[in-house]
Amino acid sequence: MFGYIRETKGRKRFSVVRMCKALKVSETGYYKWKRTGNKPKAWQLLLVKIHKILDEHPDNQNYGIKRILIALEQRGERVSRSTVIRAMRKGNLLHASPRRPEGVTKAEEKAQRPKNLLQRDFSATGPNEKWLTDITQIPCLDGTLYIAPIFDCFGGEIIALAMESTMKKELCIQAVKEAYRTRNPGSGVIIHSDAGSQYTSELYKKTLGGFHAVQSMSDVGKCYDNARMESFFATLKKEKLYQMNTMKRTREDVKTIVWRYVMVYYNRQRISTVNKGGLPPTMFRIQAAARQAAA
Question: Where is this region: Disordered (predicted)?
Answer without folding.
Answer: 96-116
